[in-house]
Specification:
Helix content: 10-25%
Number of domains: 2
Largest sheet: 6 strands, mixed
Mean pLDDT: 75
Strand content: 25-35%
Number of helices: 5
Length: 313
């Protein structure tokens, strides 16, 4: 009976010494079979600048990727996860427990073992393995014709597991990816608000060029309109005689519920000019009602024909 520490999926953490600023590295991706080999690893036939020291791999027959550890020998690389910095390894004879009988010595390597577990290995020579022990696992690669090797507890240690490494200067950390995503989201929101603000400012500048604010003082003189005037709409001086209002930041209106222009169906905003038809007290965007009255001499809401107003002398 043997009691020792072993791990099924070998997990190594990379511990890097400080890299001097003069060290020049490059990402030189290459494939060994279907496995991508890139920084921090490099194949033995690649230049030193393609990887970090002690991260050498060997490609056998262009199909098998081999990791050689000083006190552990050759191991087959089953998979490399560059995001989580893990490498899955297996025994060339697919019997990983045998490799640990002499102990695990990672001295002189950039790897650190994780997830170590303890197992009791038994040489079972008394017939069939008891079924009442569900945690017992048969280790086929260590068993013979007249005996069986079993391990307690749980999973089969003759399956390969993973190694991992810790390399702060490889790729982008997951926390940095989250921070970048959050920053990009904030930037997009601010950018959209800036676009809306600039569009509104452009509309205000356009309105300032097209219309002048008229301050109406004193009583207005009303003259009757003829049927001919109704047919052709109002002229410019008659339209400009109607009162105009510049909305402030509070956007206080005569009728708070009437906060949408009935012509363009847009909500009234601060710094916009509204023109009021005195007869019915209906108001609209100045630029909207001006164009309307040039064509139709009637209120868009009540359809009443307004009188012509001219400033008193």
């Amino acid at each position: 009976m043997a009691l020792f520490q072993i791990f099924f999926f070998v997990v190594f953490s990379f511990i890097f010494p400080s890299v001097q600023s003069s060290t020049s590295t490059e990402i030189c991706p290459v494939f060994c079979g279907d496995k991508l080999i890139r920084l921090p690893f490099r194949l033995s036939n690649q230049p030193d600048r393609c990887g970090y020291p002690r991260f050498n791999l060997t490609c056998k027959n262009q199909t098998k990727t081999i990791l050689t550890l000083p006190f552990f020998g050759e191991l087959i690389v089953e998979n490399i996860d560059y995001l989580y910095q893990s490498i899955w390894i297996n025994d060339p004879d697919y019997c990983i427990p045998r490799r640990f009988f002499k102990g695990l010595n990672l001295s002189g390597t950039p790897f650190e073992a994780q997830d170590l577990e303890s197992y009791v290995f038994l040489n079972w020579s008394n017939g069939a393995i008891p079924k009442q022990l569900p945690q017992v696992r048969y280790i086929s690669c260590l068993s013979g014709e007249t005996f069986s090797v079993i391990a307690i507890p749980a999973n089969r240690p003759d399956e390969y597991r993973s190694l991992s490494w810790t390399c702060m200067n490889i790729g982008i950390p997951r926390s940095a990816i989250f921070g970048i995503s959050f920053g990009v989201g904030i930037f997009l929101i601010c950018f959209l608000r800036l676009i809306c603000h600039l569009q509104r400012k452009a509309n205000n500048i356009y309105n300032d060029y097209q219309h002048h604010i008229l301050e109406i003082s004193g009583p207005a003189v009303v003259r009757p309109r003829s049927a001919t005037d109704d047919a052709k709409g109002l002229d410019g001086p008659s339209i400009e005689a109607y009162p105009i209002t510049l909305l402030g930041e509070s956007r206080r209106l005569l009728r708070p519920s009437d906060n949408t222009c009935s012509i363009c169906l847009c909500e009234y905003q601060a710094n916009e000019k509204l023109r009021t038809i005195p007869d019915c007290k209906h108001y609209f965007h100045a630029i909207c009602i001006d164009e309307w009255l040039k064509l139709i001499a009637a209120c868009p809401i009540c359809r009443n024909t307004p009188q012509t107003y001219t400033p008193a002398a």
